[in-house]
Amino acid sequence: MKKYFILDTNVLLHDVSSLFAFGDSDVIIPIIAIEELDRFKKDLNEIGRNARQVSRIIDNLRAQGPLYKGISLENGGTLRVFIPSSKTSRLPTELILNKADNQILSVALELKAKGNKPVCLITKDTNLRIKADSLGITAMDYESDKVEISELYQGYKIVSAPKSTIDRFYAEGNLKPSENGLHPNEGILFVEEGKQKHTALGRFNKNTNSILPLKSPKEGIWGIYPRNAEQKFALDLLLDDSIKLVSLAGKAGTGKTLLAIVAGLKKTADEGVYIRLLVSRPIFPLGRDIGYLPGEIEEKLAPWMQPIFDNLELIFGIGKKGKGKQHSYRELINQGIIQIEPLTYIRGRSIPNQYMIIDEAQNLTPHEIKTIITRAGDNTKIVLTGDPYQIDNPYIDSSSNGLSYVVERFKNEVIAGHVMLSKGERSELAEAAANLL
Length: 437
Known about the structure:
The chain has helices at 9-14, 31-40, 46-61, 100-114, 126-134, 163-172, 229-238, 256-270, 297-323, 329-334, 366-373, 402-410, 428-436, and strands spanning 4-7, 26-30, 71-72, 78-82, 119-122, 138-140, 156-161, 187-192, 199-205, 210-213, 245-250, 276-281, 338-342, 354-358, 381-386, 416-421. By secondary structure, it is an alpha/beta fold. It folds into two domains: 4-140, 3-Layer(aba) Sandwich (Rossmann fold), CATH 3.40.50.1010; 228-436, Rossmann fold (3-Layer(aba) Sandwich), CATH 3.40.50.300. The chain has a six-stranded mixed β-sheet with strand order 3-4-2-1-5-6. A six-stranded parallel β-sheet has the order 13-12-14-15-11-16, with helices on both faces. A four-stranded mixed β-sheet has the order 7-8-9-10. Helix 8 (256-270) packs across helix 9 and helix 11 (366-373) packs across helix 12. The two termini are 46 Å apart.
């Protein structure tokens, strides 16, 4: 049955293609949403670009006829910019009409009063959905890019096997999988049946249809050693040049960023496979102007990038003790081997021959993640790290963030790999806090 789908401004800013995501139903854009788009259009970040793009799309559709009457869409639906027919508020006196969210609710109530079609409000705003429901209006989140977080791909599985199978895997260096449905580059932890002592680690190779041993260096990297099976799976993916996209998800203290950086240093400073280690994090929200902070660009970035510097100081501190290295990471930054910058400046660039780490990727929308990954030039590897359960962006959650989206979409690609890290290794205190608090 056809419906009225009323789109909140945040849906349009989240995904410009949402205008065409509702089949043959009627898509309603409240006039206040156009007013809000006009307010965002001058921003120089992703939100501003989306606002301008939505306005251009609607303006192009305007050539087909009056927007207030409705424009036919290619999918069989219609698009209409809705202007309330009466200034008489249908809202409870507690809701102030001059607030944008409440004006959208007023539009929903007017359309519902006509009674000819069901009305559904689509918004990323949790409180607006609550208010709509209290007024008897069906309200939903925009879920075209959601994944089921409880079923998110882990990147590895534990397989019970007899001792003879594990011994043969060690002896021959490969093993044909005994089950179908393994994903490319999925990690396998073999555990001896019943004893839980004799184990082996491998990774499924889709091209050869076999499980191969991990290639993590036994001597560690710059004094850093993987401390558990999950970290070994992660390091194996990070050091494999044939895998162009690696995603590492997990709670704080599991070693996601540290492993990504140390692997990047090995591939750039040691082996020269890539010309630069590029490390970036969203200045939340993505694209937020850093001009209001005092000082030069490095001083402006310091509060946002300090976690990256902390990891580099740890790596170089251990590296000096273990390998006798005398230079600091500041020297590599000055030489251009390490580059740290905000994601604000990524759009529009082509980034070839670089080892690129995007930290805190869970705070990005699927569209923003797409923008970043499509910047990858020839011989560039992208590593995404983040915790899907620790999100600062008010319009995405553990199921709709860019990191979860990429994990689900790329799990069947041979050029991609993923590991969900769950065991904290930062310290006993940090692990206890992550689990208890």
